[in-house]
Amino acid sequence: MAVTVRFYAAARKAAGVTELKLDAATAMQVLDKAVETHPNLAQVLPQCSFLLNEVALHDLNTQVLDNATLDVLPPFAGG
User: Is the pTM of this model over 0.90?
Assistant: First the structure.
């Protein structure tokens, strides 16, 4: 089983993919695995916010269960 990590905007550009399937762990461990695969994410992730199953995630030490979705959202500009 795995966690689906979806990337948006600048995070998508840095990753070069729209999503990854990674083993379940804490959110931080999942993101660390994403950076191992796509090193350019390291520049974007510190500015990002995250949703876990469509709910704002404030603690990256939160356990992410199998079949969960972790969205990576960089700051958006617009008006």
Answer: yes
